[in-house]
């Protein structure tokens, strides 16, 4: 989501991939409150039209299922 500008990546510990509650809070604040997050919030609202569309999601899942069922024809 970071690359699509609809979210920010939470920094993780390089050893085990964990993250702290402070880092989650900081990134959440940056996205939800700070001016820096305005474009991210705007992009996320635009993406809602795609990801929040149940009929479109069901159609995509049906097509994906059809492809898997007919593979490798």
TrEMBL record:
It comes from the Eukaryota. This is Uncharacterized protein. It comes from Malus baccata (Siberian crab apple).
